[in-house]
Every structure is written in C-alpha cells, then in structure tokens.
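[Meeting: bench + compute handoff]

Bench side (C.D.) handed over the final construct sequence. Compute side (W.E.) agreed to return the predicted structure before the next meeting so the bench team could plan truncations. Sequence as handed over:
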Amino acid sequence: ADIDALVAAADGTLVQVTVAPERAGGREAIAALRARGIVVAIGHTAADLDHAAEAFRAGATVLTHAFNGMPGLHHRAPGPVLAAVHSPDCTLEVISDGVHVHPDMVNLLFRLAPGRVALVTDAMAAAGASDGNYRLGDLNVTVHDGLAVLSGTDTIAGSTLTQDVALRNAVTRAGVDPVDAVTALTRTPARVLGETHRLGRLHTGYVADAVLLDHDWRVETVVSDGADP
C-alpha cells in the first residue's frame, strides 16, 4: 500500500528507488517496485554479502554509489559491493570526486565489473555554486572548498561534483580507459534506466545532445537538442 501511494504521488516521474534490503519487507518491496516498472537499487544499507546477493536475485539491478553508505570490501566480510560484482545484471554507481572513493578503488571497480560501472555525482544544491550553508532535505549542510558535510560534523552530505569533473577524475586520477569512462557516463546509465534514445550515439533517432571536451577533459561546448545554446 505504501508503494502504491508513492507511485501514485509521483504521477509517472518515479524511475528508480534505493532500498535497504535487510530492513523488514525489503525483499517484498523490491518485487513490488519491479512489478510497477521501477528500477530498484540497493544502497544506504547495512546488508552483508548474502542479503545483498538475495536482493539482486530478487530483481534489484543497481548498487547506489558503491562503497558509500554501506559496508566496504573487507577480506572476511566482502559486503554488498562484491555481491554486485558477482551479479551480472547489476550496475555499480560510483562517485568519482576523489573524496567519496579513493581513485584506486574507482579503478578497481572498473576492472571488477567492466561495462557495468556508472559514474554519478550524488550532487546537492551547492553543485556549481559557491561555498556556504545549504539545506539537504531537512538537514543543514556546510560546503567548504567544495566539500559538503553535515553542519558541525565531518560527515559527507552529498557532493558538489559535476559529471565533467567525474569524467576527468576517472581518466586522469583513477587511470580509467577513456572509452570506459565515457561509457560509464552515457551508455551504461541510459541502459539501466531504459532510456534507449540516450545511448551515447550521434545517430538518427537519438537525442541530439553532445558535450565537446578539450584535451584536458574540460568542457568547451555543449549542444542541446542539436543546437548550441
């Protein structure tokens, strides 16, 4: 009933939901969301390897920002990251800002799950804006030198990352192959969300959006819907 109310309130705009599968009703929630055409991700979770693997078998297809808000890769308790790696239909999101995840771990993820990594920002309101005080839902957030934390703490609260910087970091800091990094920004997330007209191709029938980057991976021109705004 709660899921039906959520889907109805979204009025067709609900595309993806992140679930903590170890919570009561987690598996049932995954099935119910999938039955309504919603992409289900696993994240903000204390799930261990087995709980996460069960969730992926139940229909979850995304790991929300790998390594963050979940147990990490431990030699005795590999957790949800390895469960996602072992699930061939699972796409692993990663925040490549150099803060949330060490660049070497970003590189490792691309090697463990080739073609299944999606670069995401987890950006909040301060992305592209100046340092200062912001709100994230009902929480107070302070941004200093681009790092967003819960005010008065050192707890990371989202990011100020933009996708061009995520790409640049993946290539220049994490050593990811440029083709793999661009794929993680375009084809992979579009495929996950069923956006088949946004699969990163300049071709008839696809959305005519493009970003031209220089040799340092910095934005030179943005083309939206076939035009330079």
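W.E. noted at the follow-up: The longest helix spans residues 26-35. C.D. will use this when planning the next construct.
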